[in-house]
Specification:
four-stranded parallel beta sheet, three-stranded parallel beta sheet, 10 helices, disordered N terminus
């Protein structure tokens, strides 16, 4: 009787094992490639203070539209500290429900005051499922100064005014009790003065700090500066911006709104926060 030929069976078994091993390796490669696929960039949450003026929210929405135009595909959202919906806590809760893991809070504020140091970190800490970074405020920065100078030019400031010994500028801001916030506004005022060719620029505040806009106007007048413009260090129309402009003896610039330089600055702060701050690091990045 002839012995059964087991060569075919052995070859088939070997091929089966090789095929199974290749399949397993391909499966691992697929999982690895899936893990290595680039994830979506963190959500940019622009955080405004909030205002009862209905123009404020609409103005910030236009600013963020410009930010989206500059960075297509980036998830950009608006939030407020108070007075307007959505509040920051609501925006973070919504992002958590959507399964989001990363966010950068960009304060639409101009100095390192209480909101930046306390309110934003507190809101981030209340959303522990998110990996959150907090960017620096908008000021001081050359892009902010560019926007301030352009708004003054739109109001009527000319190169002749920069050369005049009778002109001056009051930089109107919200105000703060935090000395670092006041230092940031003073720095912005100094940069604006340099941008305007050495014209004296005095910071003034709508609340919580001195001098007020009328006091700053009198200080400049005492120095022989009687042709005085008011620059608006506000992102959007509101009570403080309106009051500051009402004191202007000559021209008053409008709030910065959707100025192109401000939109670029928002993205710069976002990018800078990603570069300098590790996830869950709630200290403000400069």
């Amino acid at each position: 009787m002839t012995e059964p030929d087991t060569t075919f069976d052995s070859t088939a078994e070997l091929l089966g094992r090789i095929t199974a091993q290749l399949g397993s390796q391909l499966s691992h490669l697929h999982r690895d490639s899936t893990r290595r696929r680039p994830t979506s960039p963190p959500t940019l949450i622009a955080v405004g203070h909030g205002s009862r003026d209905p123009r404020a929210r609409a103005t910030l929405a236009l600013l963020l539209d410009r930010v989206r135009e500059l960075r297509p595909g980036l998830d950009v959202r608006l939030a407020h500290i108070e007075l307007n919906a959505p509040l920051l806590t609501e925006t973070l809760a919504g992002l958590t429900e959507e399964g989001g893991r990363d966010a950068v809070l960009v304060p639409l504020l101009f100095g390192r005051g209480y909101h930046v140091k306390h309110d934003l970190p507190a809101a981030a800490a209340a959303a522990p499922a998110l990996r959150t970074r907090i960017a620096a405020p908008l000021g001081p920065h050359p892009l902010l100064v560019e926007a301030l100078a352009d708004r003054l030019a739109e109001a009527g400031w000319t190169s002749a005014d920069s050369a005049s010994r009778s002109t001056g500028v009051v930089l109107a801001a919200a105000g703060s009790r935090d000395p670092e916030s006041l230092a940031d506004i003073r720095h912005t005022a100094a940069l604006l003065g340099e941008r305007l060719g050495g014209v004296p620029v005095l910071p003034a505040y709508a609340s919580a700090a001195a001098p007020t806009v009328p006091e700053a106007l009198r200080m400049l007048a005492a120095r022989g500066r009687h042709r005085i413009a008011v620059a608006s260090c506000f992102t959007a129309p509101g009570l403080f911006a309106t009051r500051a402009a009402a004191h202007a003896p000559w021209i008053a610039a409008t709030p910065l709104g959707a100025h192109p330089a401000l939109a670029r600055l928002v993205l710069h702060r976002y990018d800078r926060a990603l570069t300098l701050a590790a996830p869950r690091e709630l200290a403000v990045s400069r």
